[in-house]
Task: inverse folding
C-alpha cells in the first residue's frame, strides 16, 4: 500500500533527487518541507482536474431556499467534502447535452451554494479523499507529477533543466491515460436503431 511519503519520494525521483524522505509528517529536510507545503493543494487539484471514479459520491442536497433569484428556482447547500460538482442527475441513465440539469455554483452568506431548477436535487460529485489507500495507481502517479512540478525550483536549485515543464507535461499525459482507462471500464447503453434504419439494412 502506498503512502503520502512514498508519493512524495516518487515526485522527488521525477526530478532526479536521490535523497528520500523517511516520514513526510516529521522529516525536517528541505525536500520534506517542500512536499508538505504542496501536498494537500496538489491532491485537491488532481481530484478537481478529473472525475476519478474512486472519489465519486452521490448525495441528496440540502435545500437552502426556494426562488433565491429570478433566474433559479432552488438553492442547495454545497457539500462540505466536495472538490468538484460533476453533475445533478436528471433521472435518465445516460444524460445527453439536452437532458443534463443546468446548475450554477455561487457564494452566499451561508457559504457555497448550488443554484438549479431541479426539485429535490441530488449531486454526483468528486469527494475530497485523503485516504491514500483508496488512490488508484494512475492517481498516485498523477499526484506525484503534480507535486514535482511545484517543488522543482526549490529542490533542484532553481530548476536549471526545466524539469517543472517536463513534470507538467507528464501530468497531462497521465490524466489522458486515466480518462482512457475509465472509458474502457464502462459500457454506455446503446440506443436501438430506429425501425426506418433497420428496414434499410
Result:
Amino acid at each position: 500500500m502506498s503512502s503520502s511519503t512514498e508519493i512524495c519520494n516518487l515526485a522527488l525521483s521525477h526530478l532526479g533527487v536521490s535523497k528520500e524522505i523517511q516520514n513526510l509528517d516529521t522529516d525536517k529536510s528541505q525536500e520534506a518541507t517542500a512536499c508538505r507545503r504542496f501536498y494537500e493543494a496538489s491532491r485537491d487539484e488532481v481530484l478537481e482536474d478529473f472525475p476519478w471514479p474512486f472519489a465519486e459520491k452521490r448525495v441528496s442536497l440540502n435545500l437552502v431556499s426556494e426562488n433565491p433569484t429570478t433566474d433559479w428556482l432552488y438553492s442547495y447547500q454545497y457539500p462540505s467534502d466536495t472538490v468538484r460538482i460533476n453533475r445533478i442527475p436528471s433521472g435518465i441513465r445516460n444524460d445527453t447535452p439536452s437532458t443534463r440539469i443546468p446548475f450554477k455554483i455561487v457564494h452566499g452568506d451561508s457559504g457555497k451554494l448550488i443554484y438549479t431548477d431541479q426539485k429535490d436535487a441530488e449531486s454526483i460529485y468528486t469527494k475530497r479523499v485523503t485516504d491514500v489507500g483508496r488512490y488508484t495507481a494512475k492517481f498516485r502517479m498523477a499526484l506525484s507529477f503534480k507535486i514535482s512540478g511545484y517543488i522543482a525550483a526549490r529542490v533542484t536549485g532553481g530548476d536549471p533543466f526545466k524539469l517543472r515543464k517536463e513534470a507538467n507535461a507528464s501530468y497531462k499525459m497521465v490524466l489522458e491515460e486515466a480518462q482512457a482507462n475509465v472509458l474502457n471500464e464502462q459500457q454506455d447503453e446503446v440506443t436501438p436503431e430506429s425501425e426506418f434504419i433497420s428496414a434499410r439494412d
